[in-house]
Amino acid sequence: MTDGEAGRGRESVGGREKTAGITETGEGGHETRQGDHPDGREGLESERGRRETADERADRQWQDLMQEIRVVQTGVQILLGFLLTVVFTPRFESLGSTDKGIYILTVVLGSLATGALIGPVPFHRIVAGRQIKPHAVTWASRLTFIGIVLLLATLTSALFLILRVATDDAIVPWIVAGVAAWYLLCWFALPLWTRYRYTAQRKE
């Protein structure tokens, strides 16, 4: 048996010979099998049922990430646009120093969130064609996550300012704390719980 035949077996299925792939251990301990790609190119077949190369996986993850960013960017841009106009309204002059400080903090947080969420676009443009798409996906994902955290802080700060102006100060912290807890539940706790539970079940 030659070196090229080592690690390969042949099994008869319905009178036809089928080449078994080479079993490898991939990232995270998942077992992968190298075989023929559906379109004739070499790919990887994993337990998750996807057969794609590293570049194909990076392209798919990038498209998914761009869809997510589009959803978040719309809300951030509308919120920041609203915040920037507040300073030009007559009511702004009547705000106390504390409220003005909260407003400035909110605008700064909104600007930082916008920068982080738009960041993946120029990042991709600068590194495009350098054959480093997987690394671009990693850094774009980090920027997106940072932007979401900053968006959470922006929304919380804006809500705190609006409620201070609109209602009794005594109940404001409780309302803001409840809304912030809801954001944390929807944006982080629920996805992390789902990820842990169903990933653990699949490993079993």
Explain this structure to me?
- The strands form two sheets. This protein has a three-stranded antiparallel β-sheet with strand order 3-4-5, with no helix packed on it. It has a two-stranded antiparallel ribbon with strand order 1-2.
- Helices cover 63% and strands 11% of the residues.
- It is built from five helices and five strands; from the N terminus they run βββββααααα.
- A hairpin with a 2-residue loop joins strand 1 and strand 2.
- It is mainly α and 204 residues long.
Helices, by number, come to: 5
Order of helices and strands: EEEEEHHHHH
**Approximate helicity band:** 55-70%
- Ends: how far apart? 37 Å
* Helix-strand category: mainly alpha
- What can be said about the biggest beta sheet? 3 strands, antiparallel
Average pLDDT confidence is 81
Strand percentage lies at 5-15%
Would you count the extended β strands for me? Answer: 5
* Shape annotation: flat
What quaternary form is this? single chain
- Trace the largest sheet across and list its strands: 3-4-5
Cα-atom radius of gyration = 25 Å
Stretches where pLDDT falls below 50 for ≥5 residues? 4-47
